[in-house]
Amino acid sequence: MNLAFYTQTFRLGFANLRLHKLRSFLTTLGIIFGVLSVITMVAIGEGGKQQTLKAVAQLGATNVILRTVAPPENTRLQSRQSRTSIYGLKRLDLDAVQEASRNGNIPFMEQIVPVRDSEQMVVRGEIRANCNPVATTPEFFDVAHLQLSQGRLLTPTDMEQQRAVCVLSAAVAQQLFGAQSPLEDVIRIGGRLFEVVGVLQPVGLAGGKGSSLTGRDLNRDLYFPLTTSALFFSDTIVRRTGSTYERKQIELSEVYIRVDTAEHVEAVAAALGRMLELRHTDTQDFSVIVPRELLNQADATQRTFNLIMGGIASLSLLVGGIGIMNISLASVTERTREIGVRRALGARRQHIILQFLIETTTLSVAGGLIGVLGGIVVSLSVEWLSQGSFPTSITLWSVVLSFCISAGVGIIFGLYPAIVAAHKDPIQALRHD
Q: N or C, which terminus of the chain has less Cβ within 10 Å?
């Protein structure tokens, strides 16, 4: 077979497809939607994975978070006089963690930062903010990777002098001040006046992966010195919701711990968990959160999602392949006399097979190209229409793999009709009406 033969065979194949434009287009629809859905599903899954990676990077891949959690009602320690629920991390627990770091019993801890959710009302004039006022130390901003936008952060002097100053997250500043600058203005936290000394840059965790991973949306926090909290507010928190009355006593809400390297995170977390279990034998009122570990869980879940969605989308490719086979078999029947003429003129079986394979492969390749273009457009449209709520990330491997599968579908599902055509008896084919 020479070049002229291949050229003529390709021309015959394309000419036949052009004769039945609508049928050719409908035949490729299965391939188009199969490739489109594979690329779109993988892009959505990969976008969610990248969002999770950013969230963990924000929270700190080398951080361990000790958190107070509410135990079952019947296991809470209660004061007999006030019926106050007493649970969670204690200042003595913080001292024990710091001592374990100093004496080397639990090495690799670089920074230990206490955090207390004051659960106080935050207002400016008649405006009430939907936020969480957090008492902490100046080191928290470094550990949590929070960046300053305006003003300054909390300082050791603020801690020593128990100053009534605060730093707002971007969302809280927007709620209370709108487009105005909040610096040197005052707000009320639990009825106490606080001066605003700084505003933070927005972080990529608002209502997203960071919040779901650790239960805290850093964009809704407001920060003031831990020593000022001890001066103004007690550890007892009273909350009334309609007829419901809750009184609880919590000393610390969280302790953020930065570990020197990511390799030591899980070992430090396990050691801290064992130490706290020995100190909290009455009830399980704490949890140990490892963002790196949560990332692994989220990644495993994402892989499962991609596998399921990819399998579902691949069914469209299978259906498209069956469609190509059916149309090709119908085409073999229609062109039986043409096959007989070609065989009578000296065409061999491999020549007939090649001609039909060229047609089916052309259909699947064209469908694959259109599907790739459509998948890219749909993926970008999903992120744009959702305004970033569903980020997408188009991966090269999904584009290449789906296109290669689509091309393979044309060859695999077109092979049987081509063999059927090639094995027709030339004499019977010439007699076919």
A: C
Which amino acid, 185?
D
Per the CB < 8 A criterion, the answer to whether 393 and 47 are in contact is yes
Are 247 and 204 within 8 A, CB to CB? no
Strands 244-249 and 85-86: parallel
Token pair for residue 243? Answer: 């007829």
**Dist. CA 250–CA 273, nearest whole Å:** 19
238 class by beta-carbon count within 10 Å (0-12 exposed, 13-18 middle, 19+ buried):
exposed
> Measured at the alpha carbon of residue 379, what is the angle toward residues 374 and 385, in degrees to the nearest 5?
115
For every one of its 433 residues, what pLDDT tens digit does the chain have, with 9 covering 90 and above?
Answer: 566 666 766 676 667 667 677 777 777 887 888 888 888 888 887 887 777 667 666 666 788 999 999 887 655 555 544 577 889 999 999 999 999 999 999 999 999 999 999 989 999 989 999 999 999 999 999 988 889 999 999 999 999 999 999 999 999 999 999 989 999 999 999 999 999 999 999 876 444 444 445 567 788 899 999 999 999 998 888 777 666 677 888 999 999 999 988 788 889 999 999 999 999 988 889 999 887 666 676 667 777 776 777 677 677 777 777 877 877 777 777 777 777 777 777 777 777 777 777 778 888 888 888 989 998 999 889 888 887 777 888 888 888 888 888 878 777 877 777 787 777 766 676 666 5
Domain ranges of the chain: 3-54+297-431, 119-232
d(C-alpha 378, C-alpha 194), whole Å? 49
Which DSSP category does 392 fall into? -
Chain centroid offset of residue 28 CA: 33
The amino acid at 355 = Q
DSSP 120: -
